[in-house]
Amino acid sequence: MKKTIVVLVGFLLIKMILQFQLINPVFDLHRDEYLHLDQAKHLAWGFQSVPPFSSWMAWLILQLGNGVFWVKFFPALFGALTILMVWKIIETLNGGIFALCMGAIAILMSALLRINILFQPNSFEIFIWTTAYYFVVKYIQTEHQKWLYYLAVAVALGFLNKYNIVFLLLGLFPALLITEQRKIFTKPHFYFSILLCLVLIAPNLYWQWVNNFPVVAHMQELQRTQLVNVERSHFIKEQLLFFFAAIFVLVTAFVGFFRYQPFKPFRVLLWGFCCSIGFFLFFKAKAYYAIGLYPVLLAFGAVYLEQVLSKSWRVYLKPVCLVFPFAIMIPMFTLIFPIQTPDQMRTNEADFKKFGLIRWEDGKNHELPQDFADMLGWNEMAAKVDSAIIRINDPKHTLVYCDNYGQVGAVNYYSKIKGVQAISYDADYLNWLSLKEPIKHVIQVKESKDVEREMADQQTNFESVVKFGEIVSPFAREKGTTILILKNTKIDLNQLIKKEIAEEKNRH
Description:
The protein contains 24 helices and five strands. By secondary structure, the protein is an alpha/beta fold. It has two domains: 334 residues, no CATH class; 130 residues, no CATH class. Strands 2-1-3-5-4 form a five-stranded mixed beta sheet, sandwiched between helices. α22 links the parallel β1 and β2. α5 runs antiparallel to α15, α7 packs antiparallel against α8 and α8 runs parallel beside α10. The longest helix is centred in the first third of the chain and has 25 residues. It is globular.
């Protein structure tokens, strides 16, 4: 077995094992993970917020038992495959063992460690973007038509995973026009590959059309509630943080594109990066949307760095470069990952604030990073919902109604009561309701605001309205969420719910 293969396998194993060590057992799954896991039970060619690829992965996880291990396994796997693709790009550029190790370490000791702990579309997105760039590199190097078709498949899979890949294409198109690679527009196979891509994504486009393009409504909601709080200065600042432990490799890549002659045919990738970043800035995108642009640059940076350090005394800097990302990143683990308990994290509040890690999507600072707060309180919530159902003692005619998708997803994932039916008018749950039995009682999971008013309003619809409990996990984003028991309805709840869902769909 070649030495490089042994080293590669070692990096992949380290990546997979490390991902499972970065989450303290006190944390539950993330709110978004519950939604993606529930999509496995309602397979379709699209959903309100994401294309179908995540649901395919969730279906596979469901077949494997739906355990936490498998939920964490696949994002870790996609992170490892990203290292593999960077390795392949470096091999294509004739990089040696130093460049290969440097590229792998640059990816390993980066923001991907944080992204790869969650079952969200982002892990596959970064992997497939890197794969797409690998096919671009291979096509530029060989001009063989097969790489265009491989690229088409990669772009299609990226599109079916997350529409964000449009920014990759928006960056590449003008970059092709301003470089010598514009000759691709004269190649018939270029257009045939585009046609292949369109055929592969057509089912999702048709689903969007049939469902009145919910992605547009989702983007409008995102713009109104989250992107409006995005500051372009923060976007740029966070770009520097994603790969800060290997920032010297990125700088080397930018220099190499202009000073290293073998990189000249690949400058389209540099201009594509610049154009994509420009579009991200223009649309005030979230900073992490751009992470998929960087692995290919790290591959080029590692190759040129190897050339720079191969002369005279500079060879002695190679071990320093390989160790440096570990020396910088590992001391930051307690800030970047939920390794500690929330109480322990609170002692690092000043450091969290300095690096902007406790700034949530509402533009304000909170006690913990938003992702960490979104991983607390869910098991507690589901247990209290189960207790409320047991108190009523009529699960067949009891409905669990939740305010948001995280709540209903957590109940569905953790509930120990067979056949419990949880619904919400939020996200895709709006389309999944199936009322097979008459509803007599409701367990309402109500966000902390306006609980008393909600109880007063429900007095006219139920014989008994009782506050059963609330989420007390001190650092949970759902802290204060209340469990209400609404017993013995006075109205036809089935008809009312169907009517409200119809109105909600029309509103969307």
